[in-house]
Design brief:
80 residues; 1 helix; 12% helix; 24% strand; alpha+beta; two-stranded antiparallel ribbon
Length: 80
């Protein structure tokens, strides 16, 4: 899957492995409805969805939930 991703496109498998090592990549698994990051959290990581999807949402003080984005397989999150 990574070889088809925009960041790794055109790289050989060995080059992808080396890039992942140099980037200190870590594979994490989350269950459905898990919170990965909260608004205001500081992160130095970029998330890449390997399978499933990630919903980016905003919840206000009154409990209203607004879906801002849905990141599918191959997409990135927490990049800003």
């Amino acid at each position: 899957m990574l070889k088809d991703n925009i960041i790794f496109n055109g790289m050989m498998p060995e080059e992808i492995d080396l890039a992942l090592k140099e980037l200190s990549s870590v594979e994490k698994t989350y269950t459905k409805d898990s919170i990965i990051l909260r608004a205001g959290d500081i992160t130095d990581s970029l998330g890449l969805v390997i399978s499933g999807s990630v919903t980016i949402e905003s919840n206000d003080a009154w409990g209203n939930r607004t879906i801002l984005s849905n990141v599918a397989k191959g997409g990135f999150f927490a990049e800003t």
